[in-house]
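Q: I have 329 residues here and want to know how they pack in 3D. Can you give me a structure?
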Amino acid sequence: MKRALITGITGQDGRYLAELLVSKGYQVFGLLKGQANPKAQMIHTEIPQVELLAGDLTDLTSLVRVIETAQPDEVYNLAAISFVAMSFQQPELTANITGLGVLRVLEAIRIVGGSQNNPIRFYQASSSEMFGKVRETPQTEMTPFHPRSPYGCAKVFGHDITVNYRESYGLFACSGILFNHESERRGHEFVTRKITNAVARIKLGLQNELALGNLEPQRDWGHAEDYVEAMWLMLQQDEPDDYVVATGETHAVKEFVDKAFRRAGIDDYEQYVRVDPRFFRPAEVDLLVGDASKAEAKLGWHRRVSFDDLVHRMVDHDLKVESELVSRG
C-alpha cells in the first residue's frame, strides 16, 4: 500500500486529491494546522480514511515529525495563502507560508529522506499567477515569470526552490503549473464561488445584487477534479519534471457571470451586478491561457469537464444548498 501526505488537505484540491488517492488504494495522511481545527470534522465526514496529523508550514520541526510519522512515498504540497486579494493585505504572511513553506517541506523531505530504492516523491502546487504580466500567449513551461501579486511572487519562489532541490539534491520533485481550476468545493472568497453563490441567492430572492471588481480579466478555467489527476500522474513518471495544466481556452469574468445567471434562468445579469472599485487589485493580471500539450503528451492527461459544465455544476450545487437552507428555515 502506497502512503501519501497532503498539505492543504482541507482545500478543494486536497479533498479531491485525497478521494482520488484513497480510490487507488493509498493510505492518505493530511497535514492540519492546530489541534482544534474546525475543518477536521469535514475531512472525517467526507473522507474518513484520511488520517490527520498536526503540523505547520511555518515550523520545520513539525514537518520533520509529520514526515517521520507518515513515512510517505509521495508528498503533495497544496497548502498556501491562496487568495490573491489577501496576499496584498498580508504580504509577509503570504511569503512565509506560500513561499518559505515550500522550502521547509523540501528540507524536511531531504532530512528524513526515504529508502534508497524508494525515495520520497514531491509535488509542488505552482500557479499560473506566476506568469502575471504575460510575455507570450499561450503560456508554456518555458514562459518567463512576471508575477503581479505577493501571492504570485511567493509561488515563483516555491517553484524555483523546487527546481533547485531537484537539481542540487537529486530529489524527485515536480511542479504543476496549474491554471485556474474551480469546483463546488471552492471557498466563497474566490470570485467564481462568490458568483455562483450570489446567483443562487438572487434566484431564490435572498439577496438583490452581486458586487464584483474588474469583469474584463480573462482566465483559463477548468475543474479541480480533473486537475488533481494531473498531480498524481506527475509523481508516477520515471523522471521528475514540471508541467503546465490548463484547458487552452480563455473566458472573461463577465462571461462566467453571464453563464451563471443564465443557468439559473436569469437572462440579463447586468441589472443585478454592480462593479465595486474596492475589489480591484493594485496590479491586475489581464490574460492567462495555458498550453498543456506537454502534460497531454507525456502524462496522457486530458481535461474532462468543459467550461460550461463547470459553471453549471457550481450553480446547480449552490442552488441546491441555498434551497435546503431556506427549507430548514
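Q: Anything worth noting?
A: The two ends are 46 Å apart (CA to CA). Residues 137 and 247 are 13 Å apart (CA to CA).
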